[in-house]
């Protein structure tokens, strides 16, 4: 197994969470397996998540924490992102990271297009997205059409060239059944060891 450069982004706004615990397990196992790991926690980042006027001509300068996150993504070969599913999507503050940091010239190139779409600039990287939810996985798929997966994979990470993006979903997160968290941690530990 070839060691990877792995950037982990804890997308839960709280200081302590299941997402953070899962990612710490991933990080510990990845480091033990020889991968180079860097980690950032959304809770610790200071930035304005509001993009503002909504155009790419006069955007706000990126705060140092957003510059740091973007630099870590650019450094990485593999991105690991975890967040809770809130109202069918990632938390608004996490979405603000992508709204603000994924800009032309860093995440995509609007000057070079193919079929009217900008050229991705973050290619050559893969991703693992870990989602915790109270909604059963079958309900997410059959009723909601896996909307959060499609958005994260296609309209955010894939748009910037990060692919493939693989998902790990854990449901019943607010009141897990006995033994569930231990099983989740073991699954995440295996992913960390593999750098997957």
From TrEMBL:
Any one cellular component term from GO for this entry? cytosol
Q: Which residues form the Flavodoxin-like fold domain?
A: 4-179
Entry keywords, A to Z = Oxidoreductase
User: What is the species of this protein?
Assistant: Jannaschia donghaensis
Molecular function in Gene Ontology: NAD(P)H dehydrogenase (quinone) activity
Protein name per the record: FMN reductase
Q: Which family does it belong to?
A: Belongs to the NAD(P)H dehydrogenase (quinone) family.
Q: Answer whether the UniProt record assigns the keyword RNA-binding to this protein.
A: no
């Amino acid at each position: 197994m070839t060691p990877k450069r792995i950037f982990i982004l804890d997308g839960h706004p709280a200081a302590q969470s299941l997402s953070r615990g899962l990612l710490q397990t991933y990080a510990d196992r990845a480091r033990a397996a020889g991968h180079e790991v860097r980690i950032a926690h959304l809770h610790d980042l200071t930035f304005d998540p509001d993009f503002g006027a909504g155009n790419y001509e006069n955007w706000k300068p990126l705060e140092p924490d957003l510059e740091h996150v973007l630099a870590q993504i650019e450094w990485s070969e593999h991105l690991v992102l975890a967040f809770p599913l809130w109202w069918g999507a990632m938390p608004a503050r996490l979405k603000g990271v992508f709204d603000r940091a994924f800009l032309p010239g860093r995440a995509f190139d609007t000057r070079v297009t193919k079929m009217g779409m900008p050229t991705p600039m973050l290619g050559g990287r893969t991703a693992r997205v870990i989602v915790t939810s109270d909604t059963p996985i079958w309900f997410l798929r059959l009723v909601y059409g896996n909307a959060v997966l499609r958005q994260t994979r296609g309209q955010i990470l894939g748009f910037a060239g990060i692919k493939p993006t693989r998902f790990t979903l854990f449901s019943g997160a607010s009141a897990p059944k006995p033994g569930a968290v231990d099983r989740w941690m073991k699954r995440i530990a295996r992913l960390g060891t593999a750098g997957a």
